[in-house]
């Protein structure tokens, strides 16, 4: 692949651009290297030439075996060969009924296996399904919407909220851009993007000036230059890794194959000894002796075993299907019971991939919030005791600020499940307000918005101006704690702000892996119907802090405990931050005292990694390559390894593991749970 990249780049720009760390280069240099105007983009002629050189921006169709070949491969087994031989000899000797029974057993076994394994390989299809269909570009100085497959390196792409990113981009200009990269990196929260260069050693999840094909813009706008398309993108690289990984044989198929070889050799040996003894020593007639030996061999062959094994596994498959688990390969049912180590992704697998407010800090107390996801179910607790939030001073003001200084919306979908429209962090605040009894249908009309200053990464805050129809005007502020603290003179209750108290609370929440937001409000002039950035100065009253995290699933906590009681080790392998991973791992019951990061894995040789793979439960900032190495390290020590995940970044590891447990994240969470696919 690298050689092809070099050739393509040399054709396109006259120099070898392969291997350049685009994230470490200034935007102007990226534009110069790709010969792209930051104002007018490429010309149509240049785009056509590059399309000819690089090919379309799409992933190749996976190579699929023909149906007839898949069917014939069901007979590729030594025991089946012996059965076919025995059936043929039996038929030649006039045993029609016995021969038909043997052939029927073989054919039924092949048909069941063919049906169960007939589904096409879906790992690469899942990768292909993440690609964008359309893209907004600037060519010849004009904005155009084109088929994403026609994108070429050097194209100037425009992004806005809701867009699926169509190729790997080096950002050259951003405005409040936030991108959801959980499927690619495991990062649960939207990532703020900038245009400035970052360190050349930055790993994938920390390249904040890059956008990758298949990820989603949750907020803001940006311009970026395409630096990779098709198979050369990060998602294309993962697809190539999936194709290169060889599927392993399961323990059951290994044992059956070994048994088939052993019993075949034994039967043939006994038949040969019997034949020689009968002819040379007992002096029996050759024809009668041959019939007797064939009868002995046929009787000794366990022709019913393949059928019985297949039927038993098929019954297990149906039982698993009732538990929302689709088994793609019959022996996977047995393999699941032999697993000694489970490696699992975090985001969307152990957690809900739904940001949730779990902690509130007021001026005189700290409140724990129960419930998870965007469904407004749960309550408020202090030291484990259920409380009425209306009785807590300052709580109503904080909840109102969370509701009004917010552009997100939570609502029911067609199936009646709660879903989010907007930024996940704002969705957590909106859900918090709902839990407190405040709903937009009531509070928003009572406090309509007049003006707003949207969030920008440079300012790190958002402000709205609302009024109550009675002449009272309030500014509502939310943002990064350190930025909000600097704009507050007092805290809830009127006392001067106690920076030590609030900073200690921020530290506690951060150590628990939570993203912390500060909320504040201020009185505004009645004769002013607008606000400017210059108006935002130290005049606010700090209402409190909100700690937000993607919480673990309750069923995941129970599952981890059950695995441990059964003697199965569970290891969490995620692309998320080490602190967040350790916090979630601790809640799940994993050993969180030691976390191994992707950078550390890079510096370990295979021998050292094998040692760490056994003694460490939490791996953070892990790339698809790291996950593959961990699976291999555990397998090399004799462990049967299962891999569980729902992101495209998990696909190579899912295929390399002894059993891949792919979770269908497209299904809604809640009472219907998740659907799994074992392979």
Structural overview:
Helix content is 40%, strand content 22%. It is built from 24 helices and 27 strands. The strands form four sheets. Strands 10, 11, 12, 13, 16, 17, 18, 19, 20 and 21 form a ten-stranded mixed β-sheet that branches. An eight-stranded mixed β-sheet has the order 8-27-26-25-9-22-24-23, sandwiched between helices. A hairpin with a 2-residue loop joins strand 1 (134-139) and strand 2 (142-147). Helix 5 packs across helix 11, helix 14 (395-404) packs across helix 15 and helix 22 (606-615) crosses helix 23 (624-635). The model is unreliable at 1-16, 119-124 and 665-678 (pLDDT under 50).
Mean pLDDT: 84
- The helicity comes to 25-40%
Q: How many helical elements? A: 24
Strand content: 15-25%
Poorly predicted regions are: 1-16, 119-124, 665-678
Q: Give me the secondary-structure category.
A: alpha+beta
Determine the N-to-C terminus distance: 28 Å
Topology of helices and strands:
Layout: H1 2-13, H2 27-33, H3 44-54, H4 67-73, H5 78-92, H6 96-117, H7 123-128, E1 134-139, E2 142-147, E3 156-160, E4 168-180, H8 182-185, E5 191-192, E6 210-211, E7 216-228, H9 234-244, H10 251-281, H11 286-300, H12 304-322, E8 325-327, H13 332-336, E9 341-344, E10 356-361, E11 366-369, E12 380-382, E13 385-386, H14 395-404, E14 409-412, E15 418-421, H15 424-435, H16 440-446, E16 449-456, E17 461-467, E18 473-479, H17 481-486, E19 488-491, H18 499-511, E20 515-524, E21 540-549, H19 554-565, E22 569-573, H20 578-588, E23 595-597, H21 598-602, H22 606-615, E24 618-620, H23 624-635, E25 641-645, H24 651-656, E26 659-664, E27 675-678
Parallel strand pairs: 8-27, 9-22, 9-25, 19-21, 22-24, 23-24, 25-26
Antiparallel strand pairs: 1-2, 1-3, 3-7, 4-5, 4-6, 4-7, 10-11, 10-21, 11-12, 12-13, 14-15, 16-17, 17-18, 18-20, 20-21, 26-27
Helix pairs in contact: 1-3, 5-6, 5-11, 6-12, 10-11, 14-15, 22-23
